[in-house]
Design brief:
Strand order of the largest sheet: 2-3-1-4-5-6
Order of helices and strands: EHEEHHEHEHEHHEHEEHEHEHEHHEEHEH
Number of helices: 15
Number of strands: 15
Structural class: alpha/beta
Largest sheet: 6 strands, mixed
């Protein structure tokens, strides 16, 4: 089992910056604005060949109003404080932090050297001491200050010798990490073996082990119910859920198993119109970028639509991005239970009218909140995945090509006929079919779309786009290639 290191602390102490450095990635969104991270993020890292799993968590707000609550397996967790009234996500973040600490072998308690030891740090430290968890105090933002001097003030926490680092520059990170891994029992292999650690090990195995496994991403507008749907599919409250639009910020990867197949499920932030994103909202911009990157990295996209809103331009724009990236698609219309019969007929009509460019996807009408009709989602996603990686034999491909040409011959190019001769598959995810013929390179975009849809229907690739690559056939009567000297001599004939 991989050792697990949980990063905890109050907001804006540099947890996400350290997480990105430990995992050598940019998975966590980093911004000067406090409270950016909300969900738990997992990532692999290594030090001198020794691998570990890092867990980034949201910042713990003021918890002084919580009485005697303690943190850990044997305690009652962080009790509610005064921050809950100001931050509606405070209680949800605390739950995420508690799970991360329960999973971890060592908790990296991060504090800010520039702020010094403040009251929230004392409160968090007291609860960590009471929990019995193995804790390492990490004094961040200590660049330009002697390590001993930066760490001296935090000895008061009573959690052992603090380590002064700079997550931004990397100063002292290797020494701190070596000490943390030593406390995990890296040398003698003594790792925690409880159920929570086992669950964390499953996550560790799947964080970067996506080869051959279906990667399914949930995409859509804000507040469409993606996180609620993801929790239903995971059968656990893994992701933060709130009625506030924009609750999810990072793209969160979680393993899930269905019908004996291990998959990766990615929850993403909602994608709004560019015009509605304020100029200063850098966090939302990064969230949208992360969401689009997750779609590109996935095999199947679940386009989650809000049935209580009409199918709008933004829904069509997101669907177009998924199609252009070549990802298989399943349309999930959420909140279906809130509609009357007349409204349902209207939504069904809008789907046909506003999303005609999609490659015949499966359309599912569900309610994530009530759990209705959710059993059809994963089978549909796996069918779409199988379609993306389908093997298309050459003989059936050529028969399908001849059927398509017989039904609708390609348009002529400058009064010259375009003759398509044969085709074969040359790629997967999405399936790529190369079509050879005379003047094949002159096929119009409309006819290529016609061929793509015909091949998809012929091989029952539901929701899977097919890419057509036209290639001009070689002319057998063209003169053989000649040397540059002969070509130059031939070009000079007839001149005086």
């Amino acid at each position: 089992m991989l050792p697990v290191l949980a990063l905890v602390g109050r907001p804006n102490v540099g947890k996400s910056t350290l997480f990105n450095r430990l995992t050598a990635s940019r998975d966590a969104i980093v911004d000067d604005q406090p409270g950016v991270t909300r969900d738990r993020l997992y990532g692999r890292g290594q030090l001198d060949g020794r691998k570990f799993l890092a867990v980034d968590t949201g910042g713990l707000e003021d918890i002084r109003g919580g009485g005697d609550g303690v943190l850990g397996r044997d305690g009652d967790g962080f009790a509610a404080g005064d921050a809950d009234a100001a931050n509606p996500f405070a209680a949800l973040i605390r739950e995420q932090v508690e799970v991360a600490i329960d999973e971890a072998q060592v908790t990296l308690f991060m504090v800010d050297a520039a702020d010094g030891l403040v009251a929230p740090d004392r409160d968090i430290g007291a609860r960590l001491r009471a929990s019995g968890a193995r804790v390492l105090v990490v004094v961040n933002k200590s660049e330009g200050v002697e390590a001993e001097l930066a760490a001296a003030e935090f000895q008061e926490l009573g959690l052992g010798a603090p380590f002064a680092i700079s997550a931004k520059r990397g100063d002292g990170v290797a020494e701190m990490l070596a000490a943390a891994l030593a406390r995990c029992g890296m040398d003698d292999g003594e790792f925690a073996a409880d159920a929570d650690a086992a669950a964390a090990d499953v996550t560790a195995a799947d964080v970067d082990g996506d080869a051959g496994r279906p990667v399914i991403v949930l995409a859509g507008r804000p507040n469409a119910g993606k996180s609620t749907l993801a929790n239903r599919l995971l059968r656990a409250p893994r992701l933060l859920v709130s009625a506030t639009p924009g609750t999810t910020r990072d793209s969160v990867r979680v393993p899930v198993e269905f019908d004996g197949r291990r998959c990766i499920l990615i929850d993403t932030a909602g994608v709004r119109k560019k015009s509605r994103v304020r100029a200063g909202e850098t966090v939302e911009k990064f969230s949208v970028i992360k969401a689009l990157q997750a779609v590109e990295a996935a095999n199947v996209a679940l386009l989650v639509l809000d049935a209580t809103c009409e199918i709008g331009f933004q829904d069509a724009a997101i669907a177009g991005i998924i199609r252009d990236l070549g990802r298989s698609l399943v349309v999930v219309v959420n909140k279906w239970d809130r509609l009357e019969a007349r409204q349902r007929r209207k939504i069904e009509s809008e789907l046909q009218r506003k999303l005609p460019f999609l490659p015949d996807p499966e359309i599912l009408f569900v309610s994530a909140l009530r759990g209705s009709n959710l059993g059809r989602i994963m089978p549909a996603a796996l069918r779409a995945f199988d379609g993306a990686f389908a093997d298309l034999p050459t003989a059936p491909v050529n028969r399908a090509l001849q059927e398509a040409v017989t039904r609708a011959p390609p348009p002529m190019h400058k009064r010259r006929p375009v003759r398509l001769k044969f085709a074969h598959q040359s790629g997967k995810n999405p399936p790529v079919i190369v079509v050879h013929g005379n003047l094949a390179g002159k096929l119009s975009a409309g006819y290529r779309r016609y061929l793509a849809r015909h091949f998809a229907r012929a091989f029952r690739l539901t929701g899977t786009p097919v890419r057509i690559i036209p290639r001009n056939a070689d002319n057998p009567f063209a003169p053989a290639a000649t040397s540059p000297r002969r070509a130059k001599k031939r070009s000079g004939r007839g001149k005086k």
